[in-house]
Write a structure and sequence with these properties.
The structure is a single chain. The protein is globular, with a radius of gyration of 13 Å. By secondary structure, it is an alpha+beta fold. Strands 1-2-3-4-5 form a 5-stranded antiparallel sheet. The protein has 2 helices and 5 strands, in the order αβββββα.
Length: 99
Amino acid sequence: MPAKPQVEPYEVQFVQDLLHAAGATHVRARKYGFSIIAESGPTADPVRHFRVRRDTVHLWCLDMGHHTGRWERTPFRDTLRTLVPMVINQFPWTLTPIA
């Protein structure tokens, strides 16, 4: 089985651009292994909102940040172009700024 392709910088920027275009300017995206993490707050103690994990070349899996600091898997698997707007439109409370 071929190895998963790495997360590219343009994919991270794409996620951040979608979030900022939707008004979630407090959220930043960063690469972590085969995932893109959407987080906010200080970099030393970030609030994890969601992450997308690469599953195949074009498909990603969505995980939501849990208040315990762990990731909660969801049944959603699709392209970045579908998953990020789905979080923005169907789960907007997950992007709420936390003071």
